[in-house]
Automatic annotation (TrEMBL), chain A:
This is 3-methyl-2-oxobutanoate dehydrogenase (2-methylpropanoyl-transferring). Keywords: Oxidoreductase, Thiamine pyrophosphate. The lineage of its organism: Bacteria, Pseudomonadati, Pseudomonadota, Gammaproteobacteria, Alteromonadales. Residues 4-180 form the Transketolase-like pyrimidine-binding domain. InterPro entries: THDP-binding, Transketo_C/PFOR_II, Transketolase-like_Pyr-bd, Transketolase_C. It comes from Shewanella intestini. Its EC number is 1.2.4.4. SMART domains: Transket_pyr. It comes from the Bacteria. Transmembrane segments: none annotated. Gene3D superfamilies: 3.40.50.920, 3.40.50.970. Coiled coil: none annotated. Its cofactor is thiamine diphosphate.
From TrEMBL, chain B:
It catalyses: N(6)-[(R)-lipoyl]-L-lysyl-[protein] + 3-methyl-2-oxobutanoate + H(+) = N(6)-[(R)-S(8)-2-methylpropanoyldihydrolipoyl]-L-lysyl-[protein] + CO2. The keyword Transcription regulation does not apply. It comes from Shewanella intestini. It comes from the Bacteria. This is 2-oxoisovalerate dehydrogenase subunit alpha. Residues 56-352 form the Dehydrogenase E1 component domain. CDD domains: TPP_E1_PDC_ADC_BCADC (cd02000). The lineage of its organism: Bacteria, Pseudomonadati, Pseudomonadota, Gammaproteobacteria, Alteromonadales. The keyword Disulfide bond does not apply.
Length: 325, 392
């Protein structure tokens, strides 16, 4: 085990797989010699050469199309989109191509070797265009997997699994935690299975579900609630597509209550999908309506970032309201 | 031929074209010592215009220096300078009519100043206070001014390029004798929107000036890793539009090219592409450190081509400027910027009610409900929301 931050853990995962898989290439804007604007790809060009880790011209649409092409012909492509806010020029290539390559060809062709890495989320004074959490646009796209890690250890294991998964994966990295989240990370190669949620804390009164950077927020809120005598079960969903209905349903059947927290706006957010499924699965077990604490239905505002965020105070209040319903 | 090519030359042996097939000269009027080339034809410029350009240069230099400092002190969260590119930005804007619409990328605050944006207005945006036209919603330097025909900056690159085509087409239909000018970098020219915007402008005959600031770097990525062709100008010819490459550090060359581009665009209802060759002397932004991707020697070499100094020397040669006046102007703006900072940073943030405004023309019922709940919540936790607590 070694102490490291999330960027370091991501860098290790990339390096491990590039070492093992000679067909893997890493590319995107500024990822080459410079190592990416956040330095997630630092040193990879020096280690593996310019053919395997390189800058692309500034075109997300091109990056995604190029990645599809590489992966469709037997390469392992790890493409960085510099900010998730800038993924939209690539939307066509991801939604109509990456996601449907296998299905439309009757499995003659696939782009399973493709992983998009992209930093998402707010809390860094990034305003509209360096703060968004666009995961729900992609969870409604059958054919791409969506994964979000919460800390360095998870990031390394999930990223290795994502790169090796035989399906295209969008790997959203919580940039607020890139340097802020430091923890023990196992050495060497390991994977964390995609599609599996993790119960990070057992409890009996309410299930509190989140992913990525919001995990530390809900953990703080639950701590406050515990002091009031409320026993919280905390789940990190980790994979949003496909998502682990069984683990969440089992927890809600035990606690009878569910609160979902995400940074993206409430309306059309992934919490709505979870709530609908869980009320179907757990209707007779529910003791209160499923609650959601999410971003406001506005673009991400700079000056009122604190007010916009589904923070620990809002989450704590929602836990209380749900438990005393 | 029906497929709209230019000529019908036929050859009977394989012969490829390459990037050298297209010869693209670079327009230079002003020499490093402030004298003009002998054969050069000067743009339309009198003393008043020259003074206004110089004044904008000095203000911009001072603003960039002071606000980068303010960012380092933690007074604002972010900043971007346009140091080294003033001639490209100001020289082109100075060729326009105030009714021409500017769609900038983000590094063109000097254009806005040229149009009359006040020091106070710059500060209000950067400090996200209640007087900011953008209501504090965007990062510093994302200015906009309806009055000055300067559309509000959006961080995503190149989105403004096809938009400029649409703006100019609309101006044409409205019968206005105005163009749209669109600024972008050579990096943004790699985006799909660049192709879409230029091709549409040429096909639909939209009077747009596409102004490419080729400044050598897209964050860390040098031009050699951005494109393999003959710059950006070669593409304009491919799209069938009038195209020119100019020395972007030569105020008179940029002014001359843009004056003529504007006249051509209006006369022919057609777009023009200008590629200005320059160098981003500063970092990409306050979040960037260029020492990770380029040498001090390279930066120092480009310091020798300072566009502001070159233009000042020309004015001095003309007897329109002297060093003492120039120094006084710097001093005046240093004081002006500093005192504007002190005022702007004390003004309160925009009221929380604004958070749900402008999502649509009117707040929807769900937004009103979210605001009501938010305010109740802030009342419970005033310490957690210092920007809005106590003034709900």
């Amino acid at each position: 085990m070694a102490q490291m931050n999330m960027l370091h853990a991501i860098n290790e995962a990339l390096s491990i797989e590039m070492e093992k898989n000679q067909r893997m290439v890493v590319f995107g804007e500024d990822v080459g010699h410079f190592g990416g604007v956040f330095r997630a790809t630092s040193g990879l060009q020096e280690k593996f050469g310019r053919d395997r880790c390189f800058n692309t011209p500034l075109t997300e649409q091109g990056i995604a199309g190029f990645a599809n092409g590489l992966a469709s012909n037997g390469m392992t492509a790890v493409a960085e989109i510099q900010f998730a806010d800038y993924i939209f020029p690539a939307f066509d290539q991801i939604v109509n191509e990456s996601a449907k390559f296998r299905y439309r060809s009757g499995n003659l062709f696939d782009v399973g070797g493709l992983t998009y890495r992209t930093p998402y989320g707010g809390g860094i004074a990034g305003g509209h265009y360096h703060s968004q959490s666009p995961e729900a646009y992609f969870t409604q796209t059958p054919g791409v997997k969506v994964v979000v890690p919460r800390n360095p250890e998870q990031a390394k294991g999930l990223l290795l699994a994502a790169i090796r998964d035989p399906n295209p994966v969008i790997f959203f990295e919580p940039k607020r935690l890139y340097r802020a989240s430091v923890g023990e990370v196992p050495e060497g190669d390991y994977e964390i299975e995609l599609g599996k949620a993790e119960v990070v804390k057992q409890g009996t009164d309410i299930t509190v579900l989140a992913w990525g950077a919001q995990m530390e927020i809900v953990e703080k809120a639950c701590k406050t609630a515990e002091a009031d005598g409320i026993s919280c079960e905390i789940i990190d969903l980790r994979s949003l597509a496909p998502w682990d209905v069984d683990t969440v349903a089992a927890s809600v059947k035990k606690t009878g209550r569910l609160l979902i927290n995400h940074e993206a706006p409430l309306t059309g957010g992934f919490a709505g999908e979870i709530a609908a499924t869980i009320q179907q699965e757990c209707f007779l077990y529910l003791e209160s309506p499923i609650n959601r604490v999410c971003g406001l239905d506005t673009p991400y505002p700079l000056i009122h970032e604190k007010e916009y965020m589904p923070d620990e105070h809002k989450t704590y209040e929602a836990i209380k309201a749900t438990v005393t319903f | 031929m029906s497929n709209a090519t230019m000529n019908n030359d036929t050859v009977h042996r394989v012969s490829f074209l390459d990037k050298a097939s297209l010869h693209i000269p670079i327009l230079r009027i002003l020499q490093a010592d402030g004298t003009t080339y002998e054969q050069a034809i000067l743009p339309n410029i009198d003393q008043a215009l020259a003074e206004k350009i110089h004044d904008t240069c000095v203000f911009t230099r001072v603003l960039d220096e002071r606000m980068l400092g303010a960012q380092r002190q933690g007074r604002i969260s972010f900043y971007m300078t346009c140091t080294g590119e003033e001639a490209s930005i100001i020289g082109s804007t100075a060729a326009l009519d105030d009714g021409d619409v500017i769609l900038a990328q983000y590094r063109e605050h000097a254009s806005l100043r040229y149009r009359g944006f006040t020091t106070e207005q710059f500060m209000n945006q950067m400090f996200s206070n209640e007087k900011d036209f953008g209501k504090g919603r965007q990062m510093p330097i994302h200015y906009g001014s309806k009055e000055l025909n300067y559309q509000t900056i959006s961080s995503p690159l190149a989105t403004q390029i096809p938009q400029a085509t649409g703006v100019a087409y609309g101006l044409k239909l409205q019968g206005k004798r105005n163009v749209a000018i669109c600024y972008f970098g050579e990096g943004a020219a790699s985006e799909g929107d660049f192709h879409a915007g230029l091709n549409m402008a040429a096909v639909l005959k939209s009077p747009t000036i596409f102004f490419c600031r080729n400044n050598g770097y897209a964050i860390s990525t040098p031009t050699e890793e951005q494109y393999a062709g003959n710059g950006i100008a070669s593409r304009g010819v491919g799209y069938g539009m009038h195209t020119i490459r100019v020395d972007g550090n030569d105020m008179l060359a940029v002014l001359a090219a843009t004056q003529q581009a504007r006249a051509y665009a209006l006369e022919h209802n057609a777009p023009v592409l200008i590629e200005a060759m320059s160098y981003r002397l500063g970092a990409h932004s306050s979040s960037d450190d260029p020492s990770g991707y380029r040498s001090k020697e390279e930066e120092e070499k480009w310091q020798q081509h300072d566009p502001v100094k070159r233009f000042k020397l020309w004015m001095i040669n003309k007897g329109w400027m002297d060093e003492a006046t120039d120094a006084q102007l710097h001093e005046k703006y240093r004081e002006e910027v500093l005192s504007a900072v002190k005022v702007a940073e004390k003004l309160p943030a925009p009221h929380i009610d604004g958070i749900i405004e402008d999502v649509f023309d009117k707040p929807t019922p769900i937004l009103k409900k979210q605001l009501k709940e938010l305010k109740e919540h802030i009342n419970k936790y005033p310490n957690a929301y210092p920007k809005s607590a106590g003034r709900l």
